Amino acid sequence: MLEILQERIESGAYPAGERLPSERKLAQEYGVPQSQVHRKLQELVRDGFLDCFRGNGYFVRAGKPRTDKAHKIAFCWESTNSLAVNENFYTDLLVGMASEYALSLNIFSVPDTAEEQNELFLQLINEGFEGIFCFPHLLHEYLPVFSELRKLGIPLIFWDYSPFPGIFPAVGVDHFSSCFTAATVLSGLAMPVTYIGYEDAEQNVLKLKGFEAGCACHGVTIDNKLLVPYRLAQVRPFPQDYFVGLAPHKLYFTATRNLTEFFVGAMFDQGYFPGKDYLLLAVDRLQIMEGSTFQLDCMMRDRAAIIRKFLLEMKNSVDSNDYTCNDYRIAMRYIKGRSLRGHGTGE
Predict the structure, then answer these.
(1) 89-103, 281-295, 311-325: which range is least confident on average?
(2) 20 to 30 A from 336, CA-CA: which of 62, 72, 230, 343?
(3) What angle, rounded to 10 degrees, do the helices at 145-152 and 114-126 form?
(4) 150 in a structural domain
């Protein structure tokens, strides 16, 4: 679609000063989601082919496109069979902020097999992408194409943690410090806590170690650890038998957002509500249901700060041709809700 629109502009089919059809009409014409049309039109604005006037639409810019073209960056998002591929929160933030850093983002779904993943990265090299963002849990082995990326000096930066530390950098959350802080929050409750988290992948190991260290430091007793295989993170429906035997009138800490969803759902099916029938401190904010009066106590990550640092690291890497970048991490902050209110300090 982007190539066709650009060809029509360059050929004069859309002459200078002409207003393009609306995003809705273009979406119908090309048979693609309107959100995708919006992103592609924004790319043409950044590349100097269009002017955008809020409320009036897109107009073909007179003269040649500007020469300060944004760097072409690939964002390798969730795998095609993941529910999260439809979750546009991070992609909207990234795409919306990218132009501030002279970056033009193109989003790709990552296939499941190593062979197909290798082909995808080769495609990105051949199409002239200058840098690549990638979710780490999609990759399970060092791909042959990665050596080519390093040789060409094309930055590959991972979100949250690097599956290949010392080779490729990451920008994300300080999981150790965040879960250490969670133990600090629970220290005033004088109750043993059940830890619920995933059992493998680097960030999950860091979460557990941070929580254990915080509990040891602040005198919090961990009476049980429910560790779920990380391969189940994308399984729907989630196997509820992992939560069998979890009782009310206890204190729980969930180290991952989707496990919070699964856990709260499983307890809800038994008629138990957070803050009323059991206490819960969760990682990341979660809306239980529309109009719910229950508000969980949460550890919140500053997504905008992470994304800005994410984009800045990529821009610096591309501009300087220096492949290395910092591993930037930001700790979560505590948001007090109702789950712990009236039980100890809750601070």
Answers:
(1) 281-295
(2) 230
(3) 30
(4) yes
Q: How confident is the model at residue 219 (pLDDT cuts 50, 70, 90)?
A: very high
Residue 291, pLDDT > 80, answer: no
Asked if residues 131 and 154 have their Cβ atoms less than 8 Å apart, the reply is yes
Under a CB-based contact definition with an 8 Å cutoff, are residues 104 and 130 in contact?
no
Higher pLDDT, 128 or 12: 128
CA distance 216 to 193: 12
Residue 347 belongs to a domain: no
Give the confidence band of 230 by pLDDT, cuts at 50, 70, 90: confident
For residues 116 and 140, state if they share a domain.
yes
Does residue 43 form part of some domain? no
H or E element that contains 76: strand 71-79
Q: Which residues pair with 107 in a beta bridge?
A: 75
d(CA 120, CA 75): 12
The domain that contains 194 carries what CATH number?
A: 3.40.50.2300
